[in-house]
């Protein structure tokens, strides 16, 4: 997800999306794309305002598709794109988390929990992933 307006980072986001702000000399979204490409078949990124450079960057760096959600709301893409037809696990990540993804760990724990229909968005990195999954499933 890279469609947010980045209002808390204004004025840095006045003319470019938060995902394209430089962190250690590369766009914020770069580390996540680098970890996903060659491991995930379909990398779909949602974009919003000032997204021209972001679209190019995503498609040149492992992204397979870009969805514009400009003025459509946070979860519009879930119900109004081909993603609603997917019948396999979907990992949803915000572009502004800088973390090391352990994809086998995420998938193995997902399977161990019975492949539940949950939306996992990594944003509380102070908890272990297994605890997050457990709490999400218990709330269903």
Number of strands: 6
The helix-strand sequence is: EEHEHEHEHEH
Helix content: 25-40%
Biggest sheet character: 2 strands, antiparallel
List the uncertain runs: 123-127
Number of H/I helices: 5
- End-to-end Cα distance, whole Å, is 23 Å
Could you say which overall geometry the principal axes of the C-alpha atoms support?
A: globular
Radius of gyration equals 15 Å
In which order are the strands of the major sheet placed?
1-2
Structural class: alpha/beta
Strand content: 5-15%
Mean pLDDT: 80
Question: Explain this structure to me?
Answer:
The strands form three sheets. The protein has a two-stranded antiparallel ribbon with strand order 1-2. Strands 3-4 form a two-stranded parallel sheet. Strands 5-6 form a two-stranded parallel ribbon. The protein is of the alpha/beta class and 140 residues long. A hairpin with a 2-residue loop joins strand 1 and strand 2 (26-27). 30% of the residues lie in helices and 11% in strands. The radius of gyration is 15 Å and the shape is globular. The chain has five helices and six strands. It starts with 21 loop residues before the first strand and ends with a helix.
């Amino acid at each position: 997800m890279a469609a947010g307006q980045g209002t808390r980072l204004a004025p840095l986001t006045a003319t470019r999306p938060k995902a394209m702000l430089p962190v250690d000399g590369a766009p914020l979204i770069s580390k996540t794309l680098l970890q996903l490409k060659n491991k995930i078949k379909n990398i779909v990124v949602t974009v919003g305002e000032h997204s021209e450079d972001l679209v190019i960057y995503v498609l040149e760096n492992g992204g397979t598709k870009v969805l514009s959600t400009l003025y459509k709301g946070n979860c519009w893409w879930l119900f109004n794109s081909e993603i609603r037809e997917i019948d396999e696990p979907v990992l949803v990540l915000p572009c502004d988390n800088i973390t090391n993804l352990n994809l086998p760990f995420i998938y193995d724990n997902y399977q161990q929990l019975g492949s539940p229909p949950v939306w996992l968005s990594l944003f509380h990195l102070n908890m272990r992933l297994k605890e997050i999954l457990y709490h999400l499933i218990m709330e269903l």
